[in-house]
Write a structure and sequence with these properties.
Shape: globular
Number of helices: 4
Order of helices and strands: EEHHHH
Strand content: 5-15%
CATH superfamily: Cytochrome c oxidase, subunit III, four-helix bundle
CATH class: Mainly Alpha
Structural class: mainly alpha
Distance between the termini: 20 Å
Number of domains: 1
Number of strands: 2
Length: 156
Amino acid sequence: MSQAIRLYDAGPHEPLPVSVLDLPTLNAALNATTAILLATGYMCIRRRRVEAHRFCMLAAVSTSTVFLLSYVVYHAQVGSVPFRGTGWLRPLYFIILLSHTVLAVVILPLVILTVLRALRSRFEAHVRIARCTLPLWLYVSVTGVAVYIMVYHLTP
């Protein structure tokens, strides 16, 4: 379980051990970054800053892709992590987790379709689906951070 992935810094090739157990924190940071990029991209398109919008949204796709890869690696190594909270926190956690999980499955094809429509310059169709994709994707990103905090920081 404590396998280390070796990353190298800009120094004299001294390895920085990163345990698979560090991946949940990375995943939360990637989800938070995605949420910020989505909100910024939305603000940019509302201000007709199309290039900035494109940059933010492609960056959000990138951070989400890295998240998905990291998430799969982590759970392939560690498996399921039980929630140890009790009281009112327990049902709240499962409500958030259930909605997050269902929407995480739904959002992947929506994001792909939304991006493809933009890349193919089908902007009317892109806008129609983006109105649905954006709030769902933002919800999945934010609740991903909430799930991380609840599992790894609010419970013993």
